[in-house]
Amino acid sequence: ARLGPGMKLEKKYREDRARRMDQRAARVRDAVDRLDEVEQPRKEWQLRYAISEAAPSSEVVLTLDRVEVRNGDFALGPVSAQVVRGERVALVGDNGSGKTTLLNAILGDRPVEAGRISWGTRVALGTLGQARGEISGPGTLLDAVATALGETNASAVRTLLAKFGLGPEQIGRPCDSLSLGERTRAALALLQGRAVNVVVLDEPTNHLDAAAIDQLQEALTAYRGTLLIVTHDRALLDALAPVTRWEFTRIADDRAEVRVECLPG
Predict the structure, then answer these.
(1) Beta strand pairing status for 125-128 and 226-230?
(2) Does 48 map to a domain?
(3) Domain that holds residue 93
(4) 165 within a domain of the structure (yes/no)
């Protein structure tokens, strides 16, 4: 049957309304899609850790000449050894056998009872002590790292620390109030923020999660400078393949000795 003029107008009105509703629904879908794109959280930036390398040091990096060190009633030595440029040295032994005591003497943090410790020339030293003393004191983390790096651009220091998961909640706090994990990550940031050619690490994997340990291992494996390391992490030692081992052994309750051994390469 034919539609009258009134019915034709009503049909056209309904078709137009349906078309407008379809168009509105399409606009809403587009808006939702755009909203998802805008509010989609950025993926967390994944750190690719690397140690910044300075120009090479002298050929002979470190010399120990019949060094004896004391820590209370405990005595270590005499120790004689030489470290050359690019050498990887593993300090191994049971807990309490004097590894940290000797490292502290090498770094000048503990006096030597006898013998002599001498460094070569052009040494740019980076350290990570067992107590994470590189990041300590009442000053804020931001100020401590900026001072250590000689960096006056606070924004650059914030960016560096953020790469190690240290953000606004940490950078304004006193260093002594930070956890050992936070201080470890901050100390690793220092090694990335300044160029070094000799690295001394005391239990660097302590207080790090598995992902951070993997990153550290990759960085140390790629590092071409001189390395002295204390670690009980067997996987890390195997990956580093040190060429020299200083083996610490207690020979009495109050004394330990060190045997220097060249490992097959």
Answers:
(1) unpaired
(2) no
(3) 60-262
(4) yes
Distance separating alpha carbons of residues 99 and 11, to the nearest angstrom: 92
Q: What is the pLDDT of residues 87-109, one digit of tens each?
A: 999 999 999 999 999 999 999 99
129 and 216 in a single domain? The answer is yes
Number of H helices, E strands in the chain: 8, 9
- Whether the CB-CB separation of 79 and 105 falls below 8 Å is answered with no
Q: How far apart are CA 197 and CA 224, in angstroms?
A: 8
Beta strand 114-119 pairing with 60-71: antiparallel
Mean pLDDT value across the chain: 85
Sheet containing strand 255-262, strands side by side? 114-119, 60-71, 74-84, 255-262, 244-252, 88-93, 226-230, 198-202, 125-128
What total of structural domains would you count in the chain?
2
- Rounded to two decimals, the pTM is 0.77
CB 112 within 8 A of CB 264: no
CATH number, residue 71: 3.40.50.300
Instruction: Answer whether residue 229 is part of any domain.
Output: yes
